[in-house]
Structures are given as structure tokens and as C-alpha cells.
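Slide 14.
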Amino acid sequence: MLAGAAVIGCQYQLATHGGRGRPAALDVEELGVARGADVEIERHVARGEPLGREQHRREPDTAGHEPEMSALDRGQGETVAERREEPELRSHRGVPQKGGSAPDLLDHQFHPDNTLAPRDSRDRERPAEQRIEPGAAREHPELSRHRGDLVGSFEEEAKTRRGKVCACGNAHGQLATRYHAAAIMRHLRRLGHSLVAGAFAGAALAPLQLLLWPEVSLPLVKVLAAFLAWTTWGAFWIGGTLFAFAELAAFAVPYLGAVKGFSVGLWRWLMIPVGLVVTWAAWWNREETRDLLLPDNRQGLAYAGSFAALFTITLVVLAIRRRPRRNALASALAFASILVACLWAVWTLTPVSHPEATIGETVHFAPASRMLFVSWEGTDLPWLLPAMERGDMPFLRRRWEMGAWGQLRTVRPYTRSATLATLVTGCAPAVHGVLGRHSYRVPWLTDTPVTLLLVGPWPDPHQLPWRAWERTPGLAPQRATLWQILTEGGRVVGVVGWPRYARGSWTVPVPLSAEAARFTTLDVDFKAALEPALRSAPELAEDARNSFSLAAALGSTAVKRISAQPVDALAIDIELAAHLRPLWTAEEPGSQREEVLRQAARLLDEQLRSLWLAMGEETLLVVVSPYGLAPPSPWQRLVHLGGSPRRWHVSPTDSPDGFVFFSGPGVRPGTRLTGARLADVTATVLYLLDLPVARDMAGRVLLDAVDEARATSVPLRLVPSYPVEPNTAAPDVSVR
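Slide 15: predicted structure.
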């Protein structure tokens, strides 16, 4: 901001004469008219009026005497006849000719195609691609006051006589040099305005970014550091972008930035896109953090967007009305400073309400039954129900009528890390703290890792200024997960296929491709049915084989571990459908691609049957999909209409609903659930296992899924929270 203001100040001093704030005056002698010319010619030249040939002669006076020769004729020793015979020489000597003053003819000598343009009455520069009248060049705000620069002096003309062209050429070169200096000043003026506007943009975006970090509390020194960092970042990146657009606009509007010093019009048209960017960033990030941010912070983004919108509308009105204002520089800077102050005030007044886990008296409850918790990522009812109708999932079809099921509203916007953490903790993302896949540490600002970054017309994570950040691994939930709660209750829990923070009595992480079972070792009948479909898309076949191998490895490993080390609860996560459906979903029914997804459904159903038999029939079965897959929305199709290829893939981008299915002891059979949310799954499971529900959980117990006998006999017990407690022993991690 200071650098831009300094550039503007230097431009204003250079544009004035001697620092006195006024342009250099114009007189006849500076235009190159020879000394001693008669007064009438001087008046015509000063006014820029054309001189006819008859105007070079004096009319007889009233006494009938012949007029005396002018000083110009005497000084050069020329007669009227010589003047008529040598019009070109007189044009070089600076004598006015028909069609304009001597400087006009000088410019016409070297640019005969140019026509004389009327002078601009205002203090404005002419564009580079247009001709500047040499006679009016002394009025140019960028040219310093030097007498005799435009054309040679009288003594030089007397010496050169027939060689006047050289002196005139030098004068024309000096004029062109000074005009190029004026064009450079216009570029510098646009640069200065752009840098200051970009600095204000960075200062306005800083509080919006801090609103996305409710877990960060800053002292005054860190607040000033954040203000300075984002201001300089905005001056460099946003200011540079504004300068590039201003230069492009100058081709259509040559007078852009031509006014010396501070240009109110240029400033307003630069600050309008700044206001639009700030307004859009505030409202867009508010909508994109519906389930990820605390309500107070989302309300703060709404206030910030309203202030920025009001600022932008006011600028548009002022730019259209074009009313001059006194003290334009001070008024413009004060107006922009008010916006920045309002946005920082919104962040300051937003309460810091990052929820902390409440540790109360530890009460241990023993679960009432065993549990099998299965997560199928990327499945949903529109894909699952037709598969059961076709007979691809016979085991699930038999259990379906004996349980409760329904659609499940997932976390919006979609992020896999936040979705899985919400599923296994029952808390909102703002409470459990997992908001995305990547986290960043900003050591100069805070020691707390941050995740949410301000979405805008810039790539992530470059909205963090000057690359003064470090990427950190994904964060673990700050609330206890379902298997941790069961472990604290004294139960043996197996965890298979979940993210790295998952720890149970024994844990099976997702194996690498090299560690997974080879595709050739899978069931022969399964491979025979799958291979013809894979040959329909050879470029996708290898990835599909790897996905099937990983899913089969997880299922078989879990069954083996249950047989070797029985457990009271098993939690397993399988991504097979999420990997295959985006690539193998057929656009037309009956395609060979559908066979790949049918084989995936059969594999999932067979694994579910094997796990349920290994756990025992009196087991609470929970099958859940944290998110579904859906085709792109009409708006996304319109945006990517020109892309290649135009084949639309299903994806979780729009956060389509998943599903949940309960079956076993305490579940009301044949019930369809409505209005279920992802956080409700853990709360309902805890109630069905006779465990208390935490008060800080965002989910509620789905009583429609509970039979009347249990609902009337088992009270709902509550605890303040389930904080994360470090494991006392290292978990058994294995892939065998």
C-alpha cells in the first residue's frame, strides 16, 4: 500500500513544473517563431489559427504608405517573390504557412498523413497511437519547461539556411522522446493505483480467512503480522493482476490513467472488482462450509459479505455519476479503509467458541450385545435396491425385510475425511476437528494446524501469504470414535480398512497394492464372470483388478483375524464401489460395463455374509454408506460442456445421500427411516448397545429404528463428552 502511494506521489511531482503543481505555460517564442516577427503573426500563431499567404503581407496604412518589411523578411534577406518560390524553406525556418502554425507544419513535414486534432481543453494526455499537436506540447502535463526545445533557435536557422531539416528533425525527436516519457508515466500511474487497490484487497480478505479458523486465537502482535502479510500478498498478487487488466483495458480506453496525480475514475474502476471478489469470497465460503464451520463464524461471513456488497454498489454509483470531489485522494483511501475496518471488526466481534471436550466422572458401561459395523463407501439406494432386485445381493435382500433402513444425509460440502470422522464420532466437523484431507501449519501465526482455506480465484494453498506454511498430515478426530468408546467399555474391537488414526484391539490398515492378494488368486468363477466385462475397457481393466484385489484382501483378512482372535465388535470400511462406479457406470442400460458393477455388488454381499457368520447370528448388524455417488448437476454439465471427453461420471461432489441399515437385537423390523443424518448413526448404535450418548454429539437417536420393547425399557443416558484418551498400549497392526 505504501509502495503504491509513493509511486502515485512521484508521478504527481514529475507531472508538475518545478513541484509547483501547474503545467508549463505556452508562449510564442517557445513555439519556434523567429524573433522580431510582427505582432499579428504572433497572435495567429499563439491562437493556433491558420495563416493564409496574404496574411504574411501587411496591408497599406491609411496614408497609403507601403508596409515595412517584417523582421522575419529583413532578418533572412528574402523578398516576397523568394518567399513564394521557396515555400519548403520557409516551412523549415518556422514561418507560418496555410493550415496551421509552424509546429503544425513541422509535424506535417514528417507525418504528412496526420491531420490537425483540436486541443484538449482539460489537463489530459493523448494516447500513444494518436498524434499530439506539437504546438500544444508545451501544455502537456508530463513535459518539463525548457525553452527552445521544439524547434531550433533563430541563430541555428540563420546558420543552417538550406539545411533546416536537420534542426527540425532533432526538434521532432526531442518531442517524441518527451511524449514517450508521458506514456511511461501513464503506465506507472496505473501500476501505482493497482498496487494500492491490491493491498486493500489483501487487507479485506485476511479477516475472512481468520473467520474460517475458529480454533485460532491471536494476540495483538500476531494480528498486526497477519494484517501486514495479507496486505503485501494482496499488493503483489491481486495488484499485479489488476495492473494486467488495466493495461489491457488501456487499448480500448487510451485515456485510462492520463490525469496527472491521483485518478478518481481509475481508482473506482479498480476497486469495483476488488469489492466483487471480497463479496463473492465471503458468501461463497459461507455456503461451502455449511456443515464444517460453527454457526457464529458462518454468520460473521454473512455480515462481511453484506458490508462488501454495500461498498461495491456505492462505488458503481459513484463511477457512473462521475461527479468531481474535493480531496479525492483522501476521500478514496478513507472510504476503502472503512470497508477494511468493518471486516476486521466482524472478525474481532465473532465469539471464539471452539468446543472443548468436557471430562466428567468416568462411567463404564458394558455393551449389551456384539456388533458388526460395515461401511460401504460410494453406495446408495439408487444403486443398491436394483442390485438386490436383480439377485446380485441375496444375503442383504433376506436381511433387508428384518431391519430398518433409509437414506442418510451426508456432510456438505463433501470431504471424505470429515465424512468418515462424523460417521464414527457422531459429532459435527466443527466439533471433532477433521475438516479436510490436508492440514497446514502456519508457524509465524499459530501453532494450531488449520484446514479450511478461503476459496477464491486463486489456487490452494496460495491464499496463505508468501508460502510461509507447512503441510501436515491429516488430523485425527478430537472426540472418541465408536471403537474407542467400545474399547473403554471393556470390549475387544477389531478395526479394518479405516484411516490411519483408527486404533482398536487389533487393526488391519488398508494394504498397499503390492501387499494385497493377486487377482489371479481370486475365485475362479468370479474371475470368469468378470474378465469379459474388463475386456470391454482395456484402459481401465488394471485399475479394476487392483480394486477387486484390495477389497478381497480386506474381507478375507478380517475373517481370518476374527477366527484367530474373536472380538465383541468389528468395524470395517470398504471403498470398492467408490473406486469402480465413477469409471464403470454405463450411460446406456445393457452395456458390458454394468457387469463389472454387478460383480462388485456380489463381492460385497458375499463378504457381508462371511463376516456376519463369523461374528454370530445374535449380532447387531449396521451397514452404512457415508456418501453416495450421483451424475453432475445441470450447471456442472453446462460449465464442462466443451470439455473432452463428454462422458459424465458419477461422483460425490454434490454430496448425494448415502444409506443406513440396522438389523439385529432391539431393531424394529420392516421400518423405513426418514430424515436421518450421518451423525445419527453413532448415537443410535450407542443406544442399541446400552451405552450413553454424549451431549456434544450432533446426532440424535433414531427412535423409529428401535423396537417398542427396548424404547420403553431402556432409558436414554447422557454423558458430557467422549474425549480422546491416549492408548496405554501399542495396538496390534497387521495385514495378514
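Speaker note: Confidence is low (pLDDT under 50) at residues 10-39, 51-155, 160-165, 727-736.
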